Amino acid sequence: MNTFLSPNQEALQQQYGTFANEVVAPIAADLASHKTCLREFLQSLGQKGYMGISVPREYGGQGQSFLASVLFVEAIGEHEAGLGLTLASHQAVIEVLKKFGTDTQKSRYLPLLARGEVLGTLAFTEEQAGTDVFAVRTEAKATGDSFELDGQKVYVVNGEMAGLHLVLAKAESGLGLFLVDTGENGSVKAGLNRSRMGLKSARANDVKYNAVKVSCEAQLGQGKNAETITSFANDVAKVVISAAAIGLLRSCLKLSVEHARKREQFGTNIGQFQGIQWKLADMLTESVGAELQVHRAAWALEEETEKFATYAAMSKLLASKVAKVQTGEAIQVLGAAGLSEDLPLERFYRDAKAMEICLGTSEAQKIQLVTELRI
Ligand SMILES: Cc1cc2nc3c(=O)[nH]c(=O)nc-3n(C[C@H](O)[C@H](O)[C@H](O)COP(=O)(O)OP(=O)(O)OC[C@H]3O[C@@H](n4cnc5c(N)ncnc54)[C@H](O)[C@@H]3O)c2cc1C
Fold first, then answer.
1. Of all protein residues, whose CA lies closest to atom 48 belonging to ligand 1?
2. Which of 8, 247, 265, 294 has the greatest number of C-beta atoms within 10 Å?
3. What is the torsion angle, in degrees rounded to the nearest 10, for the CA atoms of residue 191, residue 156, residue 197 and residue 320?
4. pLDDT of residue 80 exceeding 50
């Protein structure tokens, strides 16, 4: 039994698992190699309600907890972890709107996000502002009753598809966080998907904002408040990508155990060798430990808000580290077969490395945790 899951959430977990096995597993490799259209796949998720699991029913969502949406990402992450990155940005925009949005912003955007008709994205990072994210140079010039945004962001996940960007910029009065509706602004231009290792189904684009007009009502936060909301959005995204790591770990364990049972060497199956058994025991223990940490963080978003940021940092740090180590161990258990491109392990290995960097590096999580220890 998982301490943080209610019977309803356990039932959802089963439902999501069945969906992921039937629908995602057959196309996972094609999504990663872009042979299957990501946009169409996301639209189909939206039609089934899976893009708005934690959106309240009054806004057209499923009215489930954030933890339920994390369970969904775990299920699909068992097959293609890059989908977890795609959903991390989308989910972060949803949770930001739920917590900090005005009634008008909620009723305008939450139904569209829930149906997957609009995809959300976080546009924080710039070439010179990575870990030091508040060093952004994108300018927000006040022009009477609106702002004009100018600048360039990098690694904007969903940048080429998203209709709603959460953009961090610098105004005269300090930092500002803006909701940019690309439907209203022709001057948001997404560049090509950046070539990179891992989490390949997700698109991460450079995005240019040229004289993009946003009304003052589209400003979500200013100064310290903009920092708080940006950090909250990142924390949500961290938990979601950690959930994808948990999914990937489940697949690693399953494939490793199956192989250990059937592969014979020296007249017996390799699962009889203590060297292999110990790997599997570590894989199980560390995966379940990371899973509990991720569930704890997801639960904290609604139930223990003051600790959410801390648990989000811990879950990202732990889940990505366990994923990196244990994807390597799974490949080791399978030997040469583990390196084969016919199996997903070599893809998972690349995904796990990218997880230690995207949406905040492992070092950045440690910096945050140490700050909270107030040494
Ligand atoms: C696949 C992917 C998806 C992404 N998605 C998004 C997105 O949707 N939206 C968005 O805004 N950004 C996104 N990013 C950007 C991501 O958040 C940044 O890449 C990340 O925060 C690190 O920044 P950087 O790459 O510039 O590394 P840098 O900040 O240059 O860091 C380089 C190295 O120095 C270390 N370092 C930096 N500062 C310190 C310090 N004070 N102490 C110790 N070590 C330090 C880092 O940990 C790292 O090891 C994405 C990145 C990737 C790869």
1. 361
2. 294
3. 180
4. yes
